[in-house]
Amino acid sequence: MKKILVWDIPIRLFHWAFTLCILIALIIALFVDDDSTLFSYHIFFGLSAGFLLVIRLIIAIIGTRYARLSGLFFSPSETFKYFLTSINKNSRKYVGHNPGSATAALIMFIMVIGLLISGLNIESEFMEEVHPIFAYVLLGVILLHLSGIILYTINHKENIALSMIDGKKVGLEEFGINNSQGIIGLVLTIFVGLWFIVLGNNFTSSNTTLKIPFVNKTINLGENENENRSIEKDEEENEDDD
Questions:
Q1: What's the sign of the alpha-carbon dihedral 153, 158, 159, 162?
Q2: What is the rounded CA–CA span in Å between residue 210 and residue 219?
């Protein structure tokens, strides 16, 4: 069998943009103190990851065969069977997403939505507590996903990570896609670029608020949140003294 085109340009662009935003947001969350001005970039890239999920939904509707949302859903029995046989060199190969990568993608999407909702409502004590839980689950799923890619590469002797660069995987010619959707990819790239430009114009690390593009919402950044928490803490201490 030869290599066939499986992933169109829009899905590949989404994959790497989404990966980059999540990676930067997680690194900042794990290694930068939330009192630092750099921590504001955690919010910047977290919001961008959420925006990219909207782009993913658009791709799921207008994208090619393997980029559609239906390609992420497998029956519970097929998913269970895949996980049981995934360590086997003779395990079934899939042209598009396999049940393992599909499950990982869906969980990651759900976790990012959870992070976005909890992050935008971080003033709530409950949201503040669940926000890192979503983050650690996301990190765990990413590590499992990377482990699955390595295992698949070893078992089937095919570098599937490369497929998200050139869009190609080994398969029968009739299962390949005929259109890489380059024009749609260009339009989505411009749209995503506009998001970063507009969000960037509304953002500096020293700002206390940030206006989210395309929606009428302004959120507090780290400095403001820290001040609010400090005030709440002082009030609690005063109540204790009384």
A1: negative
A2: 5
Alpha helices (runs of H) in the chain, residue ranges in sequence order:
9-31, 40-62, 76-85, 99-120, 125-156, 163-166, 182-201, 222-241
Residue 194 CB neighbours (<10 A): 12
For 33-45, b/e burial (b = at least 16 CB within 10 A) is: eeeeeebbbbbbb
Residue carrying structure tokens 């990966």: 19
Between helix 76-85 and helix 99-120 the angle, nearest 10°, is 110
DSSP state of 93: P
Q: pLDDT digits over 49-94, tens only?
A: 999 999 999 999 999 999 999 999 999 999 999 998 888 777 788 9
CB 6 within 8 A of CB 66: yes
Q: Burial of 104 by CB count in 10 Å (0-12 exposed, 13-18 middle, 19+ buried)?
A: buried
**Yes or no: domain 2-206 corresponds to CATH 1.20.950.20:** yes
Retrieve residue 107's tokens. 């969980």
CA–CA gap between residue 188 and residue 179 (Å, rounded): 16
User: Residues 198, 213: contact at Cβ < 8 Å?
Assistant: yes
Calculate the CA 180 to chain-centre distance. Answer: 22
At 111-143, the pLDDT tens digits run 999 999 999 898 899 999 999 999 999 999 999
